[in-house]
Amino acid sequence: MSSTTDKIKGLANEAVGNVKQGIGNVTDNDKLKAEGKAQELKGDAQKATGDVKDGAKHVADKVAGKD
Q1: How far apart are the C-alpha atoms of 1 and 54, rounded to whole Å?
Q2: Highest taxon of the source (predicted)?
């Protein structure tokens, strides 16, 4: 998966997670709040993975003289 794909999926998971948490708060549904938080954290991890891939590509390009 490309870094951009990771970042997009991460943003989507964060957004859905936040919505789930909001609905869980309004309906006082602890299970939905927990699912939302877990999905938000998954999104954070996906975005971080994308950032790491970008950094690794930048370093590889620099070493190869492409930067």
Answers
A1: 12
A2: Bacteria
Residue type, 65: G
pLDDT in tens, 20-41: 999 999 999 999 999 999 999 9
Give residues with Cβ within 8 angstroms of 30, minimum separation 6.
Answer: 24
Q: Which residues fall within 8 angstroms of residue 14, CB to CB, at 6 or more apart?
A: 39, 40, 43, 44, 47
Q: What does the DSSP 8-state code read for residue 52? A: H
Lookup: tokens for 25: 């708060």
- The Cβ of residue 22 has, within 10 Å, a number of other Cβ atoms equal to 13
For residue 38, give the amino acid letter.
A
Instruction: Give the amino acid at 34.
Output: A
